[in-house]
Amino acid sequence: MFTPYDYDAAPIGLTEAFGLHPPALRAREALRALRGDRSVPRTRFDLTSLGVLLPRLSVATWLGARRPDRLVPISNLVNRTPTPIAQGWSVKKRHVRDFRGGTLTYDSHNGTDFAVPVGTVVTAAAPGRVLRISGELDRGGLKVFVDHGEGLVTTYNHLARTLVRVGDRVGRGASLALSGYSGIDGIVGFPWSVPHVHFNVWIDGENHDPFAASGETSLWCDGDHPRPSPEEPEDLAAETSWEADLVDGAIAACADPELRESLAAEPTLALRAMNVVFFRNYYPARFSAFPRIYPSTHTRAPRLTLPFRPRDFVGIVFADA
Q1: For residue range 138-157, what is the model confidence (pLDDT) as tens digits?
Q2: What is 57-87 written as a DSSP string?
């Protein structure tokens, strides 16, 4: 059992931490990750995948250890030279380069991994609205998706327990979830794989690294040294201007009839749009094309803060430092 850190909540068991409920559905998703199916290529790995494991950091983090300087370790960064996801999710370390020019990543890694003990409070990196919560075992386990307006969306993966519902408006620093290590990689790699929150950033439906390579604009408010923000309960987010014709066109490009029908049946335009963005990023082989869904183009801007409470962490450190 894991005790949520400094939070009034019931303890988190392994079933919840790994996201194993309901078991029948999760078993099918696990098989899909390993074998693939007619529209999802199998996960690819080899001996280089062992380089993803960080046993020293992993065991300490599973045991609840935190750095005395209150810096949160980053165990993986976005890979700037990813292999095509349509070929299958690759956990190999063969074509890797993070924003620094280093190798703290793997082939298909498209997010920032914050190594935190199970039960850590995860907070909104910017004000916005929760538009999706789902728990696919083969794609990051339990996840929360927040739309921040003006084309910006953040996702928080490998959670144990959510503290919000779809439709909720949240301020910057608002509590979204308690961390875990839900997902197939947490189960397969236990206890040598580091429990973490996998943090994704999308602009206009495309994946972006929040850190800035040379010549880019950082998406963090504090440059490439992100810090947390005290909770701001006010709703400061601009509404996203979704366009129905564009969203409907993106749904029509879905090659999976069952999924296409499910997407079209969502009750609001915002939910249809968010779920299109989700499936196009997580299961791209299910689409024959990727038409745009935003009526205008949005650029990188510093809008994000570290998605944890100031009492827990004050900054970051790279695991290979």
Answers
A1: 889 999 999 999 999 999 99
A2: HHHHHHTT---TT-EEEEEE---SSPPPGGG
